[in-house]
Design a protein that fits this description.
- The structure is a single chain.
- A hairpin with a 3-residue loop joins strand 3 and strand 4.
- Helix 11 crosses helix 12.
- The longest helix has about 45 residues.
- Strands 3-4-5 form a three-stranded antiparallel beta sheet, with no helix packed on it. The chain has a two-stranded antiparallel sheet with strand order 1-2.
- By secondary structure, the chain is mainly alpha-helical.
- It is built from twelve helices and five strands.
């Protein structure tokens, strides 16, 4: 029994020694080298980490700090594991070098603000120029120059840049969708609207969906909204000269041209959206059987690969094209 206890104690002491030696073994967390790999390297433990991860080569850590300070040379660097800020000591600089270093730091902090100011100023003066050009288009070149010369400069500097933003804000008003929703909601209840606008009544729509209409999908992107809003004065001027050339007042002529363009464009958009909603409301999802459906841009083709028993069409492919119109189809008609 005494011999066994002595052996157990000896093995436990050996394990403790091995554990202490493993704990004292240094491994660089940057290059993963140990004391055996580079006996002459300088080791440091610059943070609160414990175990193997607290040791690092001085040169390896210097390179890692250089990467962190590549944009700004004096920024604080901390350990990525324990977030302890490294204590970095720099040698003293001369007065002239210290002044240059201060100027570099101030320049690093001020340059983003200057760039933002230049960007905002560019947008502002672009908006002022666009507003002035728009006024000359709508009112007329001579009348616009006289009006702007007589106006207060502060009024011009405040009022002209608001013109493009007002055009964009007006373009964001979806009046066409509101009109379409009202027409779809009240057209079945008003006989004269049903007679004048039959396209708003879909076949069997009330039976299939009740009062639940398909949602309106917006197809306008930010670029199309921006372009259409900023081009509206030019288009209004062109339409005014084309359709209302007899009107002598340039402002009245441009307003009439703009109203005409917006009205015609709105009616066409309402018609287009309604046709898309009609097509969506008549959509039907079929049961999956032995047919494989392949959707195409012009309709749907059905590839029937089942062999009819005793028929002469063995090995053939039967394809039926469904036109992409607004008519309703019964799947039983495809077998005829």
């Amino acid at each position: 029994m005494n011999d066994e206890s002595v052996q157990i104690e000896a093995s436990e002491n050996t394990e403790d020694v091995n554990e202490n030696s493993d704990a004292n073994r240094r491994t660089c967390w940057v290059c993963f080298a140990s004391d055996e790999d580079d006996p002459t390297a300088l080791w440091i433990h610059p943070c609160k980490c414990r175990g193997h991860s607290k040791w690092v080569h001085q040169n390896c850590l210097q390179r890692w700090v250089d990467e962190k300070q590549s944009r700004q040379g004096t920024v604080a660097v901390a350990c990525s594991a324990c977030n302890t800020e490294y204590i970095i000591v720099y040698p003293k600089l001369g007065i002239f070098v210290h002044i240059l270093d201060t100027i570099a730091n101030v320049n690093y902090k001020i340059c983003p603000l200057i760039a933002a100011g230049i960007f905002v100023g560019s947008i502002y003066w672009t908006a002022v120029s666009y507003g002035a050009v728009t006024v000359m288009q709508v009112v007329g070149h001579r009348d616009a120059l006289l009006a702007m010369e007589a106006a207060d400069p502060i009024v011009l500097l405040v009022g002209l840049p608001t013109i493009p933003f007002m055009l964009i804000a007006g373009k964001l008003i979806k009046w066409e969708d509101a009109v379409l929703t009202l027409l779809r909601k009240y057209s079945p209840k008003l006989p004269f609207v049903r007679y004048m606008l039959p396209l708003f009544m879909t076949e069997n729509e009330a039976e299939n969906r009740g009062s639940d209409f398909p949602p309106l999908a917006s197809s306008h992107s930010s670029t199309s909204i921006l372009c259409s809003a900023l081009l509206l004065p030019t288009i209004a001027t062109f339409c005014g000269k084309l359709f209302f050339d007899s009107v002598s007042n340039n402002l009245h002529r441009t307003l009439l041209g703009g109203i005409t363009f917006i009205t015609v464009k709105g009616v066409l958009n309402i018609y287009y959206k309604q046709q898309k909603l009609v097509r969506k409301s008549q959509r039907k999802i079929l049961n999956y059987e032995t047919n494989e459906f392949t959707s195409t841009s012009t309709g749907t083709s059905i590839d029937n690969r089942s062999e009819p028993a005793g028929g002469n069409n063995s090995g053939r492919t039967q394809t039926v094209n469904i036109p992409s119109n607004d008519a309703m189809f019964d799947p039983a008609d495809w077998n005829s």
